[in-house]
Amino acid sequence: MSHLSRRPFVASLAFVLLAGLAALLGGCVTQPVEGRDYMAPAPGIKPTATILGAASKDGSFFGGSESAYVLMVDYLTVLNAAESAGKPLLLEAGSHHITCEYRYSNFVSRATFKLNVAPGAAYQLKYETSADSATDRRFCDFWIVDTASGATVGARQRQQVSGGRSKSSSLFRPE
Asked: Are residues 59 and 139 in the same domain?
């Protein structure tokens, strides 16, 4: 086989490989799965409201950003929840279970609220972190506010933050 006769073969092989890679990567777009992922109601069909994640705070020592967002609605996963924290999430009016997540570097905390969503309302998730100096445990307080009135809707929840360096001893890890 001469040097010139290999070029069409190499070019067609490269084309087939690139086309296959494009088809493979094209299928990576995350699509909601009914029964597993939250699907927001279509606007205008039923009365709706919105909820917005907490504003993200850019990192400090660890260089990551700190944020809180709606992770699940009625125990169905919100796709790309962390990336969509700054965008209003549409909710159908009525009673819902809202699971929120706080994340900073490898620190995570979650809370679930029962929220009675009023038609036309706009809600926002709020959070505040703290540490117990006696036990060195970190906590995250979550609450939801009605943005029109500024009033807290439901109870404020305090959850322990997991992650980070543990001060407990382990049989499997030398101290």
From this structure: yes
